[in-house]
Hints:
Layout: E1 6-9, H1 16-24, E2 37-40, E3 42-45, E4 52-53, E5 57-60, E6 67-71, E7 83-93, E8 99-100, E9 117-122, E10 136-137, E11 145-146, E12 151-160
Amino acid sequence: MGTLGKIKSTGASVSAALLLCLALCPAAYASTAPGSTVSNIATFEYPGSQPLDSNTEAFEVQELTGLNLLDLNTAPVGVATPSQQLLQFRLEHLGNGLQAYSLELTQSASDDFDVASLELWLDSDGDGVFDETEDTLYDPANLPELAAGESLDLFVRLLVPAG
């Protein structure tokens, strides 16, 4: 053992190495619920001496929010006019608490093209296949909520106008 001794975790405490990892990797602790208390005690041991415990340090886990929006369309979407097209995306909740998501579809104002119809659907049954009888048309008055680590597939149905 080196002259610095060693630091080890005691009981249900978090080791110094794990704390370092948590500081460098925020996603690693995303599953710890907000408001939880994490306590830590470090023990110093050196050959020929008695182990020495530090004071207990505690902190409250804060809420972490984050998301990924993944494009699940594996090939370019062909545009024939008029035609209905379906695009698929996945919303991943990276936070550590329950999060409601307000979603909005917009058409670019910087081009000369607008679709005739634009709808956002939630994959209610989670099968990754659009089915108007099973899936839910997005309602801004009823926001989808995702728990830590959950994801939701989304479908964008659009009508490309003639011309």
